[in-house]
Specification:
Chain lengths: 353, 475
């Protein structure tokens, strides 16, 4: 007991007191440094903003630009990383808001400031997240010369870094996007969103091997392939639709169901009807939506059968939506004695819902 | 002799309890640091502006129950409608308000009653009708009018039943959300490999903030004593505790003021339990149970960013009422799910999370009371080593202070939420006096809550008397 008392009084209590005051010191000093730097950073940022805006909107002349940048670098603490980061963020910001010739001058400005070397230095750091920052610079600036620096990370053991490299390469490469077929990992929805965002903004040519994507052993690539086909309005052959419907992956089947309506594949009507009973609820609802978009007489008959047979209210409501899309008066004329269906029909037809 | 034996065993128990408590908190500190670092490292992976304009995102319904909110409801709804996200709706549930909440909504947003096909997937009190705006500008707004169900849970359930998107964000109508709240909370649902069933984020105190037409104009440090103590409490709880639990997928609580949920799972688990006084914790516990029962892997994530500002109790009376409710909710949930304790089917929820909540959340106020009584008795009847008593008490106090200041340091390094050194020093003073001034009030409220639970006292909507914001006058 005495030993314990001794430890408490002579070791633990002084240690805790010391720790507490150290933390207080860190807290206060950190804030004071921030207070000092806050105004400095603010004033440097204002200078950078004003300089870059004036430069970008002035007439482009390599020599003049180069001289102005050199002179400006002496007016700011350019050797500091935070200063480089401010310039980079501002250039990226301008890049995202400008189009055409003016935007292309930003690459020259980026190089003249020596920021390309800064980005490459980040790529050489050991931490994956610092490398990701470097990759981000190239991607955000669509700096195609960065392509060769990004490529080595395509198969990096860190999955996030590898995904970042793949996505950056989509934005940088002048080649077709054929390389994506070799992507080994699962793609999250956010990665898909990023890829589709680049697709919409850059509008690259369609990969020549797109047909092969939907044969990939990686379900993520099959799914992405179907999405690309919708984007490029590339109609999926009927035999491929059937094959993909037999896929074990629910997400692939779901993507194909959605694609049938987005690509308006009328041939798929019968396949969708046959597939309906094999699917879980989520895909059933998607099939109903697709039938509503591409269906005709056969679908109308099928949907009215579903409406009678199913007990699931969500499926019933989705069916009424589809029936309404095919034939506006169908539910009202055929289900007058069914109160539930009538209520659903009213919901579907309400102009404000 | 018997008294001495009892005291000996009590000492042993308290020593074991205290050591476990300290070890737990030290582990939580490391986990929290690691989780925050991971979050910061991932910031260059997905930029919010891409999600803000994408057609491929998952849709979100913002569900906000309103009970007698006539004074501010129009501004608050406008604030919710202005959130940035490409696919969302705002579902306001008028829970049988006796003031002009519904009339104001109908008038301001040009609403008409619609033929809404309402599915009561979660049972609620009767829904009287649904309203949609005739003005396309407000097409994202849906108002659900229902009979009062004496609980926020019942109103939220009606909103969930009426929502159309696969994710729903539950908030209070008077909460002020940051414009990118939906993006931040929805992102984990879209990037995680495991199925994410709920997400939450930091909540801050809006008592002294400047608000104009439902929008936060300027954040101010709280001026009242109680809000300041609660500021400290929120920083500690959100940044320290919840981030750590999130790191090991052990979150049992996503705040009622701000939480996003997977609708399919929430509905399958039965939605909010209308009799619960801690409906947010109870829902998460039930959702966890549902996932374990169905052998489905899941994750509950927490974001170390302040996305919501809410008014907290500013007076003793209102604070005690709120904390009584929370304490009662805690014991109610633990009691309701007692079968999960140490049941191997429920994994870490059974062997770590629930026991932690029982031992270090539920038991602590009781042990504190017993401790105070025993100390007094010892002073009176037993020979006490006063020097050791002083040092041991001081050690516990220093440990508490260190934990609190780590939270403040983390918050300061990450977000610089406070305006200057003065505000930080005020927070520090609050931390120093908290155990003597604020903590006893909390202990009293918790014990009162437990007492109410055992006496089965009738419950009501957790309605808080609001003092209103510092409104910015129109020029």
């Amino acid at each position: 007991m005495e030993v314990f008392v001794d430890i408490v009084i002579h070791i633990l209590v002084p240690f805790m007191v010391l720790l507490f005051f150290t933390l207080v010191a860190i807290l206060v000093i950190n804030r004071m440094i921030f207070e000092v730097y806050k105004f400095r950073i603010k004033s440097v940022k204002a200078k950078i903003d004003a300089f870059l805006t004036a430069l970008v909107f002035s007439e482009f002349d390599e020599e003049k630009f180069s001289k102005k940048i050199k002179k400006f670098k002496r007016k700011i603490p350019f050797e500091k990383s935070w200063c480089k980061e401010i310039i980079l963020n501002e250039i990226i910001n301008l890049k995202q808001n400008l189009k055409g010739e003016t935007a292309r001058h930003l690459h020259f400005i980026y190089e003249e400031f020596g920021l390309f070397e800064f980005s490459v230095r980040l790529l050489k750091k050991p931490q994956w997240y610092v490398k990701s920052v470097g990759i981000y610079h190239f991607k955000a600036l669509e700096y195609t010369k960065g392509e060769n620096f990004v490529a080595p990370y395509l198969h990096h053991k860190n999955a996030t870094l590898s995904t970042n490299a793949h996505i950056a390469l989509i934005a940088l490469t002048s080649d077709k996007l054929n390389f994506l077929i070799d992507y080994p990992e699962d793609l999250s929805l956010t990665s898909e969103i990023k890829i589709m965002d680049i697709l919409h903004s850059r509008k690259p040519p369609m990969p020549t091997n797109l047909k092969e994507w939907i044969h990939s052993p990686n379900p993520s690539i099959v799914k992405l392939g179907v999405k690309f086909m919708v984007y490029y309005n590339f109609s999926i052959p009927k035999e491929d639709v059937i094959r993909l419907f037999n896929s074990e992956s629910e997400i692939i089947r779901s993507e194909v169901i959605v694609a049938t309506r987005n690509l308006y594949i009328e041939d798929a009507e019968e396949i969708l009807i046959n597939q309906f009973s094999l699917e879980e609820k989520k895909n059933k609802v998607e099939i109903l939506a697709s039938l509503g978009a591409i269906g005709a007489q056969i679908s109308e008959e099928f949907l009215s059968k579903v409406l009678i047979e199913t007990e699931d209210v969500d499926i019933k409501l989705a069916t009424v939506y589809s029936l309404n899309a095919i034939n506006e008066n169908y539910s009202e004329s055929s289900f007058t004695d069914n109160q539930e269906v009538m209520s659903m029909a009213k919901h579907v037809k309400d102009p404000y819902i | 002799m018997i008294l001495k034996n009892i005291l000996h065993y009590y000492e042993m128990f308290i020593a074991f309890f205290s050591i476990s408590y300290i070890i737990f908190y030290m582990i939580l500190a490391f986990l929290s640091y690691y989780a925050i670092k991971k979050h910061i490292n991932a910031r260059y992976f997905m930029h919010d502006e891409i999600l803000a304009k994408s057609n491929y995102v998952v849709g979100v319904s913002v569900v906000a129950p309103a009970f007698n909110e006539g004074a501010n409801v129009v501004f608050n709804v406008k604030s919710l409608l202005s959130l940035t996200y490409p696919k969302f709706e705002v579902v306001i549930v008028n829970d049988g308000s006796t003031d002009d909440t519904l009339e104001k909504l109908i008038r301001e947003f040009e609403m008409v009653k619609v033929d809404f096909f309402y599915q009561e997937k979660i049972p609620t009190r009767q829904v009287r009708g649904h309203y949609k705006s005739t003005n396309p500008v407000y097409s994202k707004l849906l108002v659900v009018d229902k009979e009062n169900g004496k609980s926020k849970a019942d109103a939220s359930n009606a909103g969930i039943n009426s929502s159309k998107y696969p994710l729903f964000l539950c908030t209070d109508v008077d909460c002020i959300l940051k414009s990118d709240t939906i993006i931040k909370l929805a992102k984990p649902f879209m990037e995680s490999k495991k199925r994410v069933i709920a997400t939450g984020a930091g909540i801050r105190i809006s008592n002294s903030c400047e608000v104009k037409d439902g929008f936060l104009v300027k954040v101010h440090f709280p001026s009242g004593w109680y809000p300041r103590f609660q500021e400290l409490e929120y920083v500690r709880a959100f940044l320290f505790g919840r981030m750590a639990w999130s790191q090991i997928n052990g979150l049992l609580l996503v705040s009622g003021g701000l939480g996003m949920f997977d609708k399919e799972i929430a509905v399958a688990a039965g939605g909010y339990w209308h009799k619960s006084l801690g409906e947010d914790m109870e829902l998460i516990t039930r959702m966890r149970k549902y996932m374990y029962d169905n052998k489905l892997p899941f994750a509950i994530k927490y974001i170390p960013e302040s996305l919501c500002w809410t008014e907290v109790p500013a007076t003793n009376e209102v604070l005690i009422r709120q904390r009584v409710r929370w304490a009662r909710g805690l014991i109610q949930t633990l009691n309701l799910h007692k079968n999960m304790f140490f049941n191997k089917k429920y994994g870490k929820t059974a062997f770590l999370i629930l026991p932690y909540f029982f031992a270090f959340e539920f038991m602590v106020p009781i042990l504190e009371l017993i401790g105070v009584i025993i100390i007094i008795l010892c002073f009176l009847f037993v020979d006490v080593n006063y020097e050791f008593f002083f040092y041991l008490t001081f050690l516990v106090y220093m440990f508490y202070l260190t934990i609190t200041i780590i939270s403040i340091v983390l918050d300061e390094i990450l977000y610089k939420n406070y305006a200057n050194v003065k505000e930080l020093l005020i927070l520090l003073v609050m931390a120093i006096i908290e155990p003597f001034v604020y903590h006893p009030v909390n202990v009293y409220a918790s014990l009162k809550g437990y007492w109410h639970f055992f006496r089965q006292k009738e419950q009501a909507w957790g309605n808080m008397q609001r003092q209103g914001f510092n409104t910015v006058k129109k020029k």
